[in-house]
Amino acid sequence: MAAIDRMNAAAMTWPVASGSLVLGFGVAQATGVRPLGGVVLALGAGWCALRWRRTVGTPRTVGLVALYLVAFVASHVIADTVGTWGAVFLVAALVGLATLLVADIPASRGAVAA
């Protein structure tokens, strides 16, 4: 927990990574226009990818973007079991945690992009 306390709030990308999954689904549900939700997802993932590449390098960025895409697909697969919003919240939580551990904490410790 001490590592999180020392983190620079400006370096945190996990809220955008996880939040864009939730917001993208919410926009698609509210408007009935699924591509509009996809735009939200693409903007969120793209913004995060740019930050991750600068702070933790290309390999971690590729891994996190792949996780984001897999989580998006997985939310559709598990939606029948846990419900649509349950699936979205579950994958958003997993993406947020992975982002915190793989990108945000290392970046706050001064990891140099490779």
Instruction: Report the radius of gyration as a whole number of Å.
Output: 14 Å
The SS-based structural class is mainly alpha
> Helical content, roughly?
over 70%
In terms of DSSP E residues, the strand content is under 5%
Low-confidence stretches: none
Order of helices and strands: HHHHH
Model description:
The protein is an all-alpha fold and 114 residues long. The protein has one domain. Helix content is 84%, strand content 0%. The protein has 5 helices and no strands. Helix 4 (58-82) runs antiparallel to helix 5.
Search tags:
5 helices; mainly alpha; 0% strand; 114 residues
In short:
This protein has helices at residues 2-6, 14-31, 34-56, 58-82, 84-108. The chain is an all-alpha fold. The protein has one domain (2-108).
Secondary structure elements and pairings:
Blueprint: H1 2-6, H2 14-31, H3 34-56, H4 58-82, H5 84-108
Helix pairs in contact: 2-3, 2-5, 3-4, 4-5
